[in-house]
Amino acid sequence: MSGSEAARRSAATVSKDVSKDGRPETAVMGTYARQDLVFVRGEGSWLYTGQGDRYLDFGSGVAVNALGHAHPRLVAALTAQAAKLWHTSNLYRIEGQEALADRLTRLTFAERVFFCNSGAEACEGAIKVARRYQYISGRPERWRIITFQGAFHGRTLTTLAAGGNEKYLEGFGHKADGFDQVPFCDLDAVQAAISPETAAIMIEPIQGEGGVRSASEQDLKALRELCDTHGLLLVLDEVQTGVGRTGKLFAHEWAGIAPDVMAIAKGLGGGFPVGAVLATAEAAQGMTPGTHGSTFGGNPLAMAVAGTVLEIVSEPGFLDEVQGTALRLKQKLAGLRDQFPALIEAERGTGLLTGLKLNASVTPAEVVKAASAEHLLLVGAGDNTVRILPPLNVTHEDLSEGVERLARAFGRVQNHPSS
Questions:
Q1: Are 130 and 262 in contact (CB under 8 A)?
Q2: How many domains does the chain have?
Q3: Ramachandran sector of residue 212 (left: φ over 0; alpha: ψ -120 to 50; beta: rest)
Q4: Does any domain span residue 75?
Q5: Do 188 and 49 reside in the same domain of the chain?
Q6: 174 and 226 in a common domain
Q7: How far is the first Cα of the chain from the last one, in angstroms, to the nearest whole number?
Q8: Within a 10 A sphere around the Cβ of 373, how many other Cβ atoms?
Q9: How far is CA 221 from CA 182, 216, 217, 252, 258, in A?
Q10: Are 96 and 211 part of one and the same domain?
Q11: What angle is formed at CA 11 by the lines to CA 10 and CA 16, rounded to 5 degrees?
Q12: 2 in any annotated domain
């Protein structure tokens, strides 16, 4: 090794000790503005640091840990499968895939399921299903998809283009073509955007990242009618809203409609990476061998965990309990708004996908920081909103404790603005 190379490596090693703000620095790529917290274990709604500090998790890994941390049935399912088989690839039939796909089709509108590893993959797969459907139906000119401002469909180049957020697109070259964005739930704008090249309309029933903004039941019904009238597919992104998060198994059920294609992930794995594309048989007819794939998608470990999550969430009474918990949380948040009218503009969301729209005097980052000081974990969002996403099985005691900590956090912000 040359002297200059040794010096360069030595300098690099030293630079990893601490960053400019005094925090420990690692070789992990700096794509996240992380809080300086390291959790070593979790139990129920709680996370624990190596020093024994306990935090109440009302972020649920951004709506991923649907059943909290270390749920005994999930631990048992993963442990049992890990002792048998981890991976074979999709060159062969996978027993767990067939069982989970059968359960999903029995519980939903879908007749076909494709398994992948994340929400972005699921959304990308849903886009491909919609375009391929029009192609196989003799309408190859129909490949454009109408999407909505404020949407978030993932971090791949295509799903970033579908979301259209310029902040996330900056520096990655030309935006992928094929998406026509309109204001959220502006039905006149949707109608005007439909052209001979339109293949589908893609929407989140509730925009999580976009600020917990909800499409009304009437909006979803109108979009379904527009798709039927114009020969388009209705594609729902239920990555964050699905698997019980809103008090129904899927959010579109509140409107009494069914999509043609749906992307799901997050809560489906309860913390294990898994996603899926659900579709009617007609919509999926173009997805023939070679048109799509995922090396790790639907592996036996993911299927064992996801199957257990779906089994628990679909048990009699589970979603009724989620709805009851959501009502209690809504009442508590309304009280919080009354307590801090200078900070909170409104409460938003459905079920346990909730948010507080903040007044212009405060930012989500301030509230998240103040909550962390109270050992409460929250998640920021767009439209000056902070998300509150407790596990679906959060106890009454933990729910009350969380709101009390949130009240103390708002007290901190009110007494020490911008601190």
A1: no
A2: 2
A3: left
A4: no
A5: no
A6: yes
A7: 48
A8: 13
A9: 18, 9, 6, 9, 9
A10: yes
A11: 100
A12: no
**Residues in the chain, total:** 419
Q: Do the domain assignments include residue 245?
A: yes
Cβ-contact 340, 362 below 8 angstroms: no
Predicted local distance difference test score (pLDDT) of residue 25: 76
Amino acid letter, residue 15: S
Torsion-angle region of 142 (φ positive above 0: left; ψ -120 to 50: alpha; else: beta) = beta
Domain span at residue 142 reads 85-313
Give me the CATH number covering residue 254: 3.40.640.10
Token duo for residue 101: 């796909």
Same domain, 44 and 148: no
Name residues whose C-beta falls within 8 Å of residue 45's C-beta, 6 or more positions apart in sequence: 56, 57, 58, 68, 69, 390, 391, 394, 395, 398, 402
pLDDT of residue 23: 61
Residue 210 within any structural domain of the chain: yes
Minimal CA–CA distance to 73: which of 400, 318, 327, 265? 318
- pLDDT number for residue 31: 87
- Mean pLDDT split into 10-residue runs, the chain, 419 residues: 44 46 77 92 97 97 98 98 97 97 98 98 98 98 98 96 92 94 97 98 97 97 98 98 98 98 98 98 97 96 98 98 98 97 96 97 96 98 97 98 98 82
pLDDT at 18: 53
Q: Domain with 401 in it: what CATH number? A: 3.90.1150.10
Specify whether the backbone of 70 is left (phi greater than 0), alpha (psi in -120 to 50) or beta: left
Q: At 355, which helix (H) or strand (E)?
A: strand 353-358
**pTM of the complete model:** 0.92
DSSP secondary structure code for residue 278 in this structure: E
Q: Within a 10 A sphere around the Cβ of 367, how many other Cβ atoms?
A: 23
The tokens of 193 are what? 């955007």
The whole-angstrom separation of Cα 185 and Cα 202 is: 11
What is the model's pLDDT at position 13?
Answer: 40
Same-domain pairing of 343 and 410: yes
pLDDT at 272: 98
- Final residue before a domain boundary, out of 266, 292, 313: 313
What are residue 226's phi and psi, to 5 degrees?
Answer: -60, -40
- Looking up tokens 């190596």, which residue turns up? 50
Q: Are 325 and 394 in contact (CB under 8 A)?
A: yes
Encoding tokens for residue 233? 């597919």
Strand partners, 180: 146
